[in-house]
């Protein structure tokens, strides 16, 4: 039997709830293991100066949530299901090619989060098709998340639409605003998923020149005139791949050009949660009449939920086309993952995961900056899932090949390039490597690859 001494001193919740929370925390953090026998209720009540009834209520509720199992005559034990199965550490080529959050934080909370979803009174709603815009509880959670964590003042449950992740959101946005064969403007180097989508459907991407502050407004106006395009897709915060974050003045200039040339803006805000304090207002708030925001929970919470949100412009016709697209491509958004996030938004689990991911990304960004120094561009925030190494395309291809020979997979250098004048380089994704120590070694390996090798011995070869 374990001599478990839970800490219930903090918080304003009822004592029995604090006792359950302490149990869950100690299981999650490894202080209690599956199979450990818990102290008898009377003994623990005496040790904590509580009534036996309070401890009994906590044990009963913990068993109902699946954290303990009780056996008459034997006692109460930490349940095997209370802790998710450990995932192996990094094996095979190290993944620095995919922009995903470090997984430890979601894995730590997944079991508890799902147990709480099981108790929801509206759980049965996931059995049937949802409305095309999503269940009201899911949309309320999305509006709250966009307002609290993305700082989007216009977000409201009656406005947001649930979609199946950010990529699905981009597909719906493009389908609502353009037809195959139409030109869509984007940054000259952009998220590879935008390129894939355009190639699959048949949109023509036209890359707009960038400078050190991001997309160039003069070049944007010129491209709009020359192509006749009516849609611009832009990643304004920690741009993928360059990590540039548009400042307030540049965003105002982009809005001015969009209004002058009647451009609809598709705002991909996948990384806004990682922005520094005081980041400029979103296009959704700056130009609500012409901005369709796409945001998801994949980058800072859980990619596997495949949950995203659309915030349409103040235009009922665009909203109707988005809902028609949902009906056409999937009939309705999946409800179970949305309900999981709704619960996590209510009970604070989503914040706990996101805060952990953001803190870890800050440490990893600092690590990359320390090891690679001036070889990377200054990130557009103090924490990022990726960093950008500007270099000529030939050098980028050589580095990518060297890294792969060293079992480090990097984003293909040509993946983000839309225009020949685009900034070239290598995107290093920092979240896919599970261990920070392993990431540190990989960054040192990459730094060593940047050092020119001594070729003097080969000069006499013919």
TrEMBL record:
Residues 13-81 form the HTH gntR-type domain. One of its GO terms (molecular function) is transaminase activity. InterPro entries: Aminotransferase_I/II_large, HTH_trans_reg/aminotransferase, PyrdxlP-dep_Trfase, PyrdxlP-dep_Trfase_major, PyrdxlP-dep_Trfase_small, Tscrpt_reg_HTH_GntR, WH-like_DNA-bd_sf, WH_DNA-bd_sf. Coiled coil: none annotated. It comes from the Bacteria. It holds the Pfam family Aminotran_1_2. SUPFAM superfamilies: PLP-dependent transferases, Winged helix' DNA-binding domain. CDD domains: AAT_like (cd00609), WHTH_GntR (cd07377). Keywords: Aminotransferase, DNA-binding, Pyridoxal phosphate, Transcription, Transcription regulation, Transferase. PANTHER family: HTH-TYPE TRANSCRIPTIONAL REGULATORY PROTEIN GABR. In the C-terminal section; belongs to the class-I pyridoxal-phosphate-dependent aminotransferase family. This is PLP-dependent aminotransferase family protein. It comes from Aurantiacibacter xanthus. The lineage of its organism: Bacteria, Pseudomonadati, Pseudomonadota, Alphaproteobacteria, Sphingomonadales.
């Amino acid at each position: 039997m374990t001599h478990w001494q839970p800490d219930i001193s903090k918080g304003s919740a009822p004592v029995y709830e604090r006792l359950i929370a302490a149990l869950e925390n100690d299981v999650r953090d490894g202080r209690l293991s599956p199979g450990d026998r818990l102290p008898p209720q009377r003994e623990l009540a005496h040790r904590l100066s509580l009534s036996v009834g309070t401890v009994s209520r906590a044990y009963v509720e913990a068993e109902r949530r699946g954290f303990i199992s009780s056996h008459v005559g034997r006692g109460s034990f930490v349940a095997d299901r209370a802790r998710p199965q450990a995932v192996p550490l990094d094996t095979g080529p190290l993944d620095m090619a995919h922009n995903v959050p470090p997984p430890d934080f979601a894995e730590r909370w997944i079991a508890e989060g799902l147990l709480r979803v099981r108790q929801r009174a509206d759980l049965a709603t996931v059995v049937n098709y949802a409305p095309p815009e999503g269940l009201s509880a899911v949309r309320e959670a999305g509006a709250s998340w966009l307002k609290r964590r993305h700082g989007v003042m216009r977000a409201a449950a009656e406005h947001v639409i649930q979609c199946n992740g950010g990529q699905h959101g981009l597909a719906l946005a493009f389908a609502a605003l353009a037809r195959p064969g139409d030109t869509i403007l984007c940054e000259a180097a952009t998220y590879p998923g935008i390129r894939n989508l355009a190639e699959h459907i048949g949109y023509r991407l036209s890359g707009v020149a960038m400078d050190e502050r991001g997309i160039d407004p003069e070049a944007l106006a010129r491209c709009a005139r020359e192509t006749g395009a009516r849609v611009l897709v832009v990643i304004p915060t920690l741009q993928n791949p360059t990590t540039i974050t548009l400042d307030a003045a540049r965003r105002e200039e982009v809005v001015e050009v969009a209004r002058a040339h009647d451009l609809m803006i598709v705002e991909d805000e996948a990384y806004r949660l990682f922005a520094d304090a005081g980041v400029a207002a979103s296009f959704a708030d700056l130009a609500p009449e012409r901005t369709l925001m796409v945001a998801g929970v994949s980058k800072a919470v859980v990619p596997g939920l495949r949950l995203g949100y659309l915030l349409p412009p103040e235009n009922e016709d665009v909203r109707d086309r988005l809902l028609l697209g949902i009906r056409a491509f999937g009939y309705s958004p999946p409800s179970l993952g949305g309900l999981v996030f709704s619960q996590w938004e209510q009970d604070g689990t989503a914040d706990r995961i996101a805060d952990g991911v953001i803190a870890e990304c800050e440490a990893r960004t600092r690590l990359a900056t320390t090891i690679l120094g001036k070889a990377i561009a200054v990130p557009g925030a103090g924490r990022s899932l990726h960093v950008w190494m500007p270099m000529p395309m030939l050098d980028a291809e050589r580095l990518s090949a060297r890294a792969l020979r060293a079992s480090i997979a990097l984003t293909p250098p040509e993946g983000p390039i839309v225009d020949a004048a685009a900034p070239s380089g290598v995107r290093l994704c920092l979240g896919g490597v599970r261990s920070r120590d392993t990431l540190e070694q990989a960054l040192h390996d990459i730094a060593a690859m940047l050092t020119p090798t001594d070729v003097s011995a080969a000069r006499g070869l013919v």
